[in-house]
Specification:
The chain is mostly helical and 359 residues long. It is 78% helix and 0% strand. It is built from 20 helices and no strands. It has helices at residues 2-33, 37-50, 55-67, 71-82, 88-100, 104-117, 122-133, 138-151, 156-168, 172-184, 190-202, 206-219, 224-237, 240-255, 261-277, 281-294, 302-313, 317-330, 335-343, 349-355. It is elongated. 37% of the residues are buried.
Length: 359
């Protein structure tokens, strides 16, 4: 009777543990669906304490870590899972983790194994192609993107990444053909719009490129890379008022970000260039001042020099002379070159007499 009771008690205990593990996994599933990957991983950890060999819990916790971009922890779980589950999915997940840890040879090893087991799984060929793209081996990357596209001709990530590789390889006509085909199918993707803009700009169609970048900015209003692409177009087109407004938007974003002071200083300086080109001299002067507050070196003296030119235009000869001297101090050995600009331009004759009495 005592022995029977012990067996009954052990069965109850096991049942309780199993039930608790299920509770944790169910909680994790709900939290995952809500996007709370940290708490989901915590609940799966509790489930794994009850059963360390729980394949579903291991795989799902690895997925949580991937969502949190903790690829080292995801890899650890997936390698543990591989001891119990040698499926193509497990191998593919390991390859994916190695990819994002920049261990491309290891990634290829596992992705190739995954492809052998699941040859129709497009994402493994896509990830394999990325290992070559990130190594800037664009020819090899294109081969595997094309393999992915044989399986799934409309696989958007492969089309976009292949186009990027073609652009990097300067195969602009082929890149344009991919982009044109994409939009001919009445499909939409902001990355493709940006790439189309890049290709138009490369062909010298600056207005058309600007149009695409502006469309992208409606969707990605805080994307500083796209902002810069649009700003360069505005500069080339001489649309200084539009450039000024967009540059102010960029500065607003940069000031709220953790970008370096040098990057913020450069943006203020570029705002000053646009304002000066639009003849808003006082505004330009203020922008140069803000730039120099952030970066007192003035970009190796260049901003001091540009400000000295503007001050000379505004007849602030003393200030211009001080800035010119600061330029020469920061960037020595070019005194004659810096002076010659003023000497050669009749607009600065009074300044030359003031600051360089014996040129």
């Amino acid at each position: 009777m005592k022995k029977l009771a012990l067996i009954f008690f052990s069965l109850l205990t096991f049942s309780s543990f199993a039930q608790n593990a299920s509770v944790y996994k169910n909680k994790a599933s709900i939290l995952f669906d809500k996007g709370d990957f940290t708490k989901a991983a915590t609940n799966l950890t509790l489930a794994l304490k009850i059963n360390p060999k729980d394949e579903k819990a291991l795989g799902n916790r690895a997925l949580c870590y991937e969502k949190l971009q903790k690829f080292d922890l995801a890899l650890k779980d997936n390698l543990e899972l591989l001891k119990y589950n040698q499926s193509g999915e497990t191998l593919g997940s390991i390859g994916y983790d190695y990819l994002w840890l920049d261990k491309y040879e290891d990634a290829r090893k596992y992705l190739n194994q995954a492809i052998e087991l699941l040859p129709e799984k497009v994402v493994y060929r896509y990830n394999l192609a990325l290992t070559y793209q990130y190594e800037e081996n664009y020819d090899e990357a294109i081969i595997y993107f094309d393999e992915a596209l044989v399986i799934s001709p409309k696989h958007r990530p492969s089309l976009i990444s292949k186009t990027r590789c073609l652009v990097k390889s300067k195969l602009f006509e082929k890149a344009s053909a991919v982009v044109d085909s994409f939009f001919a199918d009445h499909r939409f993707d902001v990355e493709m719009i940006i790439l189309r803009g890049d290709l138009k700009k490369q062909k010298g169609k600056i207005e058309d490129a600007l149009s695409d970048y502006n469309r992208a900015l409606v969707i990605l209003p805080e994307d500083t890379e796209v902002l810069n692409k649009a700003l360069k177009c505005l500069f080339e087109l001489g649309y200084h008022d539009e450039e000024i407004e967009l540059r102010k938007r960029e500065i607003e974003l940069l000031l709220k970000s953790d970008w370096s002071k040098e990057a913020k200083a450069l943006s203020f300086a570029l705002l000053g260039f646009a304002q000066e080109a639009a003849l808003y001299y006082e505004d330009a002067l203020q922008s140069y001042n803000e730039s120099l507050k952030l970066d007192p070196t003035g970009g190796e003296g260049r901003i001091y020099y540009i400000r000295s030119i503007l001050k000379a235009k505004l007849k602030d000869f003393e200030g211009a002379c001080i800035d010119l001297a600061k330029t020469k101090e920061i960037d020595p050995g070019k005194d004659e070159e810096y002076d010659q600009f003023f000497i050669d331009d009749a607009e600065f004759e009074e300044f030359v007499d003031y600051c360089m009495p014996n040129p």
